[in-house]
Amino acid sequence: MTAIRTTPLHSDFVVEVHTAIPDILNDPAAIQELKSIWRKSPVMIFRRQALEEDELVRFTEHFGPCDKTVRKDIQSPYHPEIIYFSTLKYADGHFVGGFAGGEDVDWHSDQTYQVRPATGAILYGTEVPRDGGDIYWANQYQAWEDLPKDVQELIDGRSGLFRYAKRYAMLNTLELKDKAKANTMLSLPDARHPVVLTHPETGRKALYADPTTLESIEGLSEEENARVLPLLFEAGGHPSLTYRHKVYNGDLMMWDNGCTMHRRDNMRLDQPRLMKRTTFRLSADAYCVPQA
Ligand SMILES: [Fe+2]
After folding, report:
1. Which residues surround ligand 1, an ion (CB under 5 A)?
2. Is the whole model's pTM more than 0.85, yes or no?
């Protein structure tokens, strides 16, 4: 059996995986082993990878089917499963992929405003700015465990309303320029998800309270919401449960949005950046997937 070597980067929450991804793409035993590592450590960092796009897609699809965006402007011209975030421009002046100057700066979990979020995420940095742009993840299993008992009892088993408009109001002005995109997103209906997710295999509970989208918790009075939501948001990003990653060229970062949150430092927009991203749907049989 393949033995995959890992080094903890933060408790059992974040591990570095010492494997060249192309070496395990066709090795089902190694993929199985990686899945069991990921179950315990929902953020995995693979450094200095040199991946073709088809390898990135094949690797991703071992974990779940890729979510394909309808936005052609941010898609890879080679693989519709991959989107780009970049400061670079094509020869005709269009940005390569999403400009992404302002998103991802505050703590959040991806797609929480969607009725059915795709919770698997891979971000692969092929060209990374030298300054700023560090990425942080926060362990939402630990956030749940650290909540006071009375707060746990108040929110366990309840659902929340998650709204894109809340995130929109927090984005910076560069993002607001894209009116067509904004109008589509703002017309999304509220999503309803449990605010505590339970892993179907391990039974571990994770707080699922994205500060950028969670509007209110059902069944709580206005006063209770006003008291509890700030507590949850503070707990979710508490420094004791966060890991900070300085990203270098070739780093591939993989995380499960069902039990983690992330944010990014501001970065220099005058330096070249090309990040490749896949988003994939995890099965509710094996992962913390929000299902109301
Ligand atoms: Fe994100």
Report:
1. 104, 110
2. yes
